[in-house]
Amino acid sequence: MDEPHKLLPIAYRSASRVLRNPLLAEEAGERAVHLLVLAVLDGTPPHHPAAWIRVVARRSALALLRSDWVRTPALDPEVMAGVQAPYRQSRHFEASLVRERVEPRLAPRQRAALDAALTTSTTRDAARCAGMQPRDFRRHLARIQKKAREAFAEGLPDDPFADDAGVQFRLPS
Q: pLDDT tens digits, residue range 15-67?
C-alpha cells in the first residue's frame, strides 16, 4: 500500500453512484482514501484495498446524504461569477494605519508594546518580545487602546475614513 491516492478514482466512482453531485462525490471519495490511510498507519491495512475503498466510499456518500451538506442549495455558477467579492483591505494596511495614527501619542515603552502586539500572535509572545511580564504588557495594551480610540475618534481633516463612523480598532490578544 505505497500510494493509496491511486485508489481515489475507484472511490469517486463508487460515491458518484450514490451522490449525483460531483463535488460531494469527490468529498466522499477523499474521506474514504483518508480512512484508508489511517487504517494503514494504524497497522491494519485491508486485504483487498479496492473492495474496501468501494464500501467505505459508498458509506461516506450515504453519510453525506444524511448530513446538512446535501440540504444546502447549490449556487448557480453564472450568478456567482456576476457577484463581486466584498472589498477588504489587508491586515498590513490596518496595522500601518494604527501605527500612523497612534505611535506619535505613545511613550517609547508603549511603542515597543504596540510593535510586539502587531507582529506576534499571542499576548504571551508579545510580552516576551517586548521584554515585559504579561500582566504589565496587558496594562500597556489598555493604555494604548485608550489612546488609539481617542486618535480614531478625532479623525484627521484629510482622512479618507473620516466619513466612516464605525471604524473598529482592536489589538490582537
A: 999 998 898 899 999 999 999 999 998 889 999 999 999 999 999 999 998 88
Other residues' Cβ atoms within 10 Å of the Cβ of residue 160: 7
Task: Map grid coordinates 518580545 to a residue.
Answer: 129
- The CB-based long-range contact list for 39-42 (8 Å cut-off, 24+ gap) reads 40/1, 40/4
Are 37 and 20 in contact by the 8 Å Cβ rule? The answer is no
* 8 contacts 33 by C-beta, under 8 angstroms: yes
- Length reported for the chain: 173
The three three-digit cell numbers of residue 168, written as one number: 473598529
Residue 135 Cα to chain centre, angstroms: 29
All three cell numbers of 24, joined, read 460531494
d(CA 158, CA 118): 25
Cell numbers representing residue 7 in the block: 485508489
Three-class SS string for 63-75? HHHHCCCCCCCCC
pLDDT band with cut points at 50, 70 and 90 for residue 10: very high
Amino acid letter, residue 75: L
